[in-house]
Amino acid sequence: MALAKAIVSSRTLAKSLPLLSHLPKLSDAPPYSARTLGVIRAFSALVSPPAKAVVYEQHGPPDSVTRVIELPPVLVKENDVCIRMLAAPINPSDINSIEGVYPVRPQVPAVGGREGVGKVHLVGTAVKDLSPGDWVIPSPLSFGTWQTYIVKDQSVWQKIDNDSPMEYAATISINPPTALRMLEDFTSLEPGDSIVQNGATSMVGRCVIQIAKSRGIRSINIIRDRAGSDEAKDTLKKLGAEEVFTESQLEVKNVKSLLGDLEEPALGLNCVGGNAASLVMKFLRQGGTMVTYGGMSKKPITVSTSSFIFKDLALRGFWLHKWMSSNDVGESRRMIDHLLGLVRGGKLKYEMELVPFSDFHIALDKSLGKLGSHPKQVLKF
Ligand SMILES: NC(=O)c1ccc[n+]([C@@H]2O[C@H](COP(=O)([O-])OP(=O)(O)OC[C@H]3O[C@@H](n4cnc5c(N)ncnc54)[C@H](OP(=O)(O)O)[C@@H]3O)[C@@H](O)[C@H]2O)c1
């Protein structure tokens, strides 16, 4: 109970909530005047339902520090919107936040999650642009999406088309924009050019393949050796990958001999580190750039001296949070609308597994890699 209280106070629960217990229940009410009833209705209408939430009181291994609890109602202030969450994914950055190793994270105790989609449940008295039933996503990203009801200021919410597939709407704000930005912001790519990436089975990797393909850019993809890697290769090729190699296939003296008619890539994307990052660099052309945006293997990147001297490689980094902080929120929202348009047009697809919220801990174990490789886990509330 103490935990729920702490989280609720961090959710700005109204100090006046105890007043609720002093309000008479309408069913046993004596004949109140219409005005009094109006006040009672208006007051009770501006309180969220209780929420079920995944919370953690301290940082640590996500499977041991998280639990699902019920949080009491929250007052909906005049500029607030109360959202009934529909779906939210478990992303690597959510795991890192709970572990306490992600640079931007909420103070504990906290509710997990950073993106998702919900439906407006009720709005504060000053809210004009959102109405009950609208679909919204937190944009800019906002902590605490792993709960059934969220109350936050109207400025947090971006209204989206509610004919977007729910699981795509829930996952459109982090990984697809990362893929798009990395293809646009580092090198100038023309149709016929190629790029190379590792971690190609990830959601970001799949988006990179499809966005590149739609622009005539050919992708060389590296995946790890694991059960099901042949099926994964076929899936990525169907999405538009030009070549897909497992790391072990690239244990050759000269990886470029595998390029065939593909141009040497000017851009490489790395979300794995270790050997998988070295392989990306081996493919790059003279003066090429490798952008690192993740570290799934938790292994460092090692760069040969010759890569700098003879190939003059550039090593860069990308962090969506920084991009969003340095760009206007309108630009970010337009990018999300554009990406949702690609989804609705069937031009952006990725695998997901919708999981009932009651199975949160199974979904978490899958996301932690404890049960082998699984598609992105998306909680359905
Ligand atoms: N910098 C940014 O702003 C930013 C934004 C978005 C995402 N990211 C990063 O991008 C990466 C991908 O995120 P996502 O949400 O797209 O991933 P995801 O869909 O959850 O997929 C996870 C990916 O990581 C691979 N993987 C898992 N454990 C691994 C290991 N020990 N060694 C090598 N590969 C491993 C998986 O390969 P299998 O298919 O073989 O299991 C899969 O490709 C993450 O590192 C994430 O933090 C960064």
What does this structure look like?
With 381 residues, the chain is an alpha/beta fold. Strand 12, helix 10 and strand 13 (289-292) form a beta-alpha-beta unit. The two termini are 22 Å apart. It is built from 14 helices and 16 strands. Mean pLDDT is 91; it is low at 12-42. The strands form three sheets. Strands 3, 5, 6, 7, 8, 15 and 16 form a seven-stranded mixed beta sheet that branches. It folds into two domains: 2-170, Quinone Oxidoreductase, Chain A, domain 1 (Alpha-Beta Complex); 175-321, 3-Layer(aba) Sandwich (Rossmann fold), CATH 3.40.50. It binds NADP nicotinamide-adenine-dinucleotide phosphate.
Kindly state the percentage of residues in helix. 25-40%
CATH architecture descriptor of the largest domain? Alpha-Beta Complex
Mean pLDDT: 91
Q: Are any ligands bound, and if so which?
A: NADP nicotinamide-adenine-dinucleotide phosphate
Quote the beta fraction.
15-25%
Largest sheet, in brief, is: 7 strands, mixed
Number of structural units classed as domains: 2
As residue ranges, the low-confidence spans are 12-42
* Radius of gyration, in angstroms, nearest whole number: 24 Å
Number of helices: 14
Shape: globular
- The CATH superfamily of the largest domain turns out to be Medium-chain alcohol dehydrogenases, catalytic domain
GO molecular function: enoyl-[acyl-carrier-protein] reductase (NADPH) activity
Main location: mitochondrion
Keywords: Fatty acid biosynthesis, Fatty acid metabolism, Lipid biosynthesis, Lipid metabolism, Mitochondrion, NADP, Oxidoreductase, Transit peptide
Subcellular location: Mitochondrion
